[in-house]
Amino acid sequence: MDKVVVLFESCIIRDDVVLNTMISAYSHNQQGKNALKLFKKMHSESAGLSQHTLTSILDACGALTVVQQGKQIHALVMKMGSDQNSFVVSALIDMYSKCGNIDEACRVFDQTGYKNNILWTSLITAYTQSGRDLDALKIFDHLVLE
Prior knowledge:
Serine Threonine Protein Phosphatase 5, Tetratricopeptide repeat; 146 residues
């Protein structure tokens, strides 16, 4: 990761692709604070936020258990219309459950107009991470029986 940071800092032109990639790199390498810092800078400069950026920054919020920042990202997701993307919604469910707010994770799931395997799996994982294994098993049984 040290080499990645050096490479990033040496970039003369930091376009949306470079910035999004760096946020993802920070997030996937347990450097959520750096991901949030870069995200805030990117957002304040009205840079192009992608669905991938949103999933990466929500992952960082979940890892850091910073639900207040996660809620702000959730509002941005809604504003951008990204609540129709399964991966972004899955990241929201994951973030809320990691922050200890399983009720909000369930609300996100329930408010989603479509349910696919990605979202069902995210909900099952959220229940499991929250110690609600019986709820996770009930959902799994329901899906198997459908």
